[in-house]
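User:
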Amino acid sequence: MFGVDLIDAAFMPAALVALLAGVVSFLSPCVLPIVPPYLAYMTGVGVNGLKAGERSAVPAALMFVLGLSTVFLIMGFAASTFGRIFLDYQTWLARIAGVAVIVMGLHFLHVFRIPIMDREARLETGDQGGSAVGAYVLGLAFAFGWTPCIGPLLGTILSLAATDANATRGTALLAVYALGLGIPFLLSAIFINRAIGLMNRIKPHMKMIERVMGVLLIAVGLMLVSGRMADLSYWMLETFPGLATLG
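Assistant: Predicted structure:
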């Protein structure tokens, strides 16, 4: 369809994990609480101004998502290119990536904590509030500055990209992750009043969300270590035959 085998049985389970990881990244304790202040800053009005509809936050949110997506796409291309260089060692690369993903899952389950994953390296963007360029720059800064915070999830997707020798699919995998993180951000900008209320209701359940994602990461890691990702692909094809027509 696209001139390359972008969408195939092997890509679909990895893409599903990437999408879920993006959504959970948005729901993480270091991202969800800063969404309303970020939207207010990018539009040049306060949170109360957003609630009152003084200015739409959608254009700024779109530029912000484009900014963070730019960084994630570059990361995906770099990771998959790295994997292609070590094509002869793909099996071992997948096993190493699997172990790393399991460690990140245990971090989410609070079996132990990785200190660098619990803090963010925030970057200053200057007085850029209220402009499209400022929102884009803030998106770039967010992707770089919050990488330690969302590291367990982002690292998992980068590991999956590295185990795929196809640079196009690896980049697409990070694009799916960016969608999972960016779409909730855009929806929050569109439905700001409802979003703030929903965020307040979600906050008490963040620990449970982390634990669920931890279990998912460990499952993905075990499949990478054992080479069973292909089995999941075959199961998806048998369960959803329409997937065979994609790509």
